Amino acid sequence: MKKTNLVICTLLVSTLSVPALAANTSSSWNKGKSDAMTEVEQRINNQQYEAAIHDLKGIVAKDTDNADAYNLLGYTHRKLKRYEVAEDYYQRALALDPDHRGAMEYLGELYVETQRLDEANAMLSRLDKACFFGCEEYRKLKAMIDNREQRPETVSKW
Q1: Cys-Cys with 49: which of 72, 76, 77, 101 at CB 3.0–4.6 Å?
Q2: Distance CA 91, CA 97 (A)
Q3: Within this chain, do residues 67 and 115 fall inside the same structural domain, yes or no?
Q4: Same structural domain for residues 121 and 146?
Q5: Neighbours of 135 (CB within 10 A)
């Protein structure tokens, strides 16, 4: 009986794990990260947003289906407070990859920064569905929403 229960539990856990792993993929997960994307991430980490934008535009010119690059274009423009442009890039990333957790998180952050908490919460709900067992993107967006709901005076004007 114990052996049967162990087998059933093992099968159940392995069956539930497959969707969780699939949900963790993004467009670059299977392709591997290019040298150009690694350089872009370094520029972003050094707050060299204009240089990163230049490089990212070159990447999407060659690979128009690169959801990760569109997501980072959104991120860099958001950091420069170009909210409308950033939102367009996040939407493009999500059109290419509807389960792109990074784009969902960052778009939710944009909504918080532009005082659209209802839309931020809708994005949080979407992230919750994409992150079967929870994920960092969900936790970060939730923390940002919670912080802004407690201190609304710190929100940027749209």
Answers
A1: 76
A2: 10
A3: no
A4: yes
A5: 19
Domain identity same for 112 and 156: yes
Alpha-carbon distance of 78 to 99, in angstroms, equals 20
Q: What distance lies between CA 85 and its chain's CA centroid? A: 17
pTM listed for this prediction = 0.76
Range of the domain at 128: 99-158
Distance of CA 43 to the CA centre of its chain: 18
Q: How remote is the C-alpha of 135 from its chain's centroid?
A: 11
The DSSP line for 46-109 is: TT-HHHHHHHHHHHHHH-TT-HHHHHHHHHHHHHTT-HHHHHHHHHHHHHH-TT-HHHHHHHHH
Q: At which residue do the structure tokens 């609304």 appear?
A: 152
Q: What is the mean pLDDT of each run of 10 residues along the chain (158 residues)?
A: 47 41 37 83 97 98 97 98 98 98 98 96 95 92 90 55
Question: DSSP class of residue 25?
Answer: -
Residue 16 lies in a domain: no
Do 49 and 103 have their domain in common? no
- Label residue 116 left, alpha or beta by phi (over 0 means left) and psi (-120 to 50 means alpha): beta
The count of domains in the chain is 2
**Domain co-membership, 76 together with 38:** yes
